[in-house]
Design brief:
The protein is mainly alpha-helical. The protein is built from 10 helices and no strands. It is elongated and about 55 Å long.
């Protein structure tokens, strides 16, 4: 009986739940320390699993960090997806509210995601760069569907460069905000909204 109870306890988390738990621990550790200073043994110890089990899910540390970055990228893309048929200007405030709520609630993951660009591993940096490119495409697609900015928004180099610069600006603002800025979330939202509308203004 005791053996069956112990077995049930060990199997309490599904494969997906266990993977999510490991990624959450990784997001926290990678957000607090540089890539080279995070050890797989730390992740396994905090998660209460063996190192072997962690390697079962993620064969290498690079694979693990890449999965953390991809997880955070997917979350951000899903939460900031544009609503078809509604002008960008009307969506911007609500979209930024959602984004900043995510940044605040998942500060560890957000910082870990943006630490990827500083990682020495080129494969990890490529994962990060692909994620940023996906964010850029998502914004450009929303602009392309908005008559105010023209049907060729995705092909206009000025808009593409403006969006890329705005993403860098917003990232810098959010990271500084997480460090303890005196600005409220509403003030950060309005600052980022004005910055995007400013660079898009003809």
């Amino acid at each position: 009986m005791a053996g069956r109870q112990g077995e049930r306890a060990r199997r309490r988390l599904s494969t997906e739940e266990r993977r999510e738990q490991l990624l959450s621990v990784g997001a926290r550790l990678f957000s607090e320390s540089p890539y080279d200073e995070v050890w797989i043994e730390q992740v396994a110890e905090i998660a209460g699993v063996s190192r072997g089990l962690l390697y079962h899910y993620f064969p290498t540390k690079r694979d693990f960090f890449a999965a953390v970055v991809e997880r955070e990228s997917g979350r951000m893309l899903a939460m900031t997806a544009a609503v078809p048929g509604i002008p960008v200007r009307e969506q911007l405030t609500a979209g930024l509210d959602t984004y900043l709520e995510y940044v605040s609630a998942h500060a560890h993951g957000y910082r870990a995601f943006h630490r990827a660009d500083a990682a020495g591993d080129q494969s990890v940096r490529k994962v990060y760069q692909r994620a940023l490119a996906a964010q850029e495409r998502q914004i450009l697609a929303a602009l392309a569907a908005d008559p105010e900015f023209g049907d060729q928004a995705e092909e206009r180099p000025d808009l593409r460069l403006a969006v890329r610069g705005w993403l860098a600006f917003t990232t810098a603002v959010c990271l500084e905000w997480l460090r303890g800025s005196d600005l409220s979330r509403e003030q950060v939202r309005d600052l980022c909204a004005r910055a995007l509308l400013g660079v898009l203004r003809p």
